[in-house]
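dumping this here before i forget
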Amino acid sequence: MPVKKTDLLIGDGSLLTDWSYDRSIDDAANVVKVVKNSKKDQGKSTSTATDSASEAKNTVLTSQSSVGGTTARWGRLQVVEKVSDDKMNAAAMKAKANQILAEKNKETRSLKITALGTLEIDVGDSFWLSVNSLADIGVGKRQVTVTKVTHKFDPKNWTMDLEVQV
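structure:
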């Protein structure tokens, strides 16, 4: 939720001097495993392969894979979450796996904008962005929220670098 909604328009022919758009799956995951080392043998105990012989042999393992096309598009991107709560049951482990999957099963998108400076924009504020060349990725003309702003004051030129949520 934006702190302040402004009517400011940044875009083609209005304050915009440069932009860059990036998509990444570096922090993404489409398979999540939650592993609990148990001191006593519980229901679905299994032995897991580890690189250390000192690890406990009995573990309870819950896995959640993504439904949809991310595995087909990106391949298998797995993250393993170790929990130490012996009281965590299989349902809680599955819920934790689903929660982590919901957070990580998406690509991150970042849009960085360089524009002529104005004091109307601060972190958390929103403004109208209108860049025709970004229409094919669904950005085009829309209201965006600023996540980072850096003002650069130069004797001849005042600019600001903005990172916005898309």
